[in-house]
Amino acid sequence: MIPAFQDITSQNHAMKRYYKFQSKIYDKTRWAFLFGRTNLVHQLPIARDAAIRILEVGCGTGYNLHNFASYFVNAQLVGMDVSEDMIALSQKKMEPYSNRVDLLPQAYGERPLLREESFDVVVFSYALTMINPQWENLIEQAYKDIKPGGIIAVVDFHNSGNPLFKMHMKNNHVRMDGHLLPVLENKFSTLSSDVQRAYWGLWEYFSFVGIKPYR
């Protein structure tokens, strides 16, 4: 297991340091292994013209926000990332949709969000495997912030049977133990859940779309 950060402050400082450099090469390199991101928007059972609110936690350079904003033409979006360097890149990418997007340089759950804390969709894209051990807290926070009947959409690393690769990912702050999917499937009503192999099985990644039950 990847060594856990003792508190959220240590976690946030580590992520800020990591992305100080990584932000400069992120879009040039991540296409080669962050699979499943492009299809995520098409997995949501929501009309393109629906007036919805979408939150992406760990929005990075704005790759997913741009896809969601262009597809859901009446959506209001909030992007959140602890790295100011990544938020700066998101701002540039989201300029065509600036009237529909709020970008927040902060950790999820650190302080209240803008407007009412209620979303139709919360997105995590290759974020939860980097938040250790607080990933479960983020899922709980998302559950609170999603409207009853709203959706969580997640794409992330799943697991690897290669010890050397797992060590490499551990050195880049990524935990790959298949730990996320069972929790998501237990917390939300599953719409779709899929595990795919990458590079002939060097690792697996998953996508999950679930609904917060009405209670």
Automatic annotation (TrEMBL):
Protein name as it appears in the record = Class I SAM-dependent methyltransferase
Provide a Gene Ontology MF annotation, just one.
methyltransferase activity
Q: Which residues cross the membrane?
A: none
Keyword field contains Zinc-finger: no
Methyltransferase domain boundaries: 54-150
Which terms does the UniProt entry file under GO BP? Answer: methylation
UniProt-listed CDD domains: AdoMet_MTases
> Which Pfam families does UniProt cross-reference here?
Methyltransf_25 (PF13649)
Q: Which UniProt keywords apply?
A: Methyltransferase, Transferase
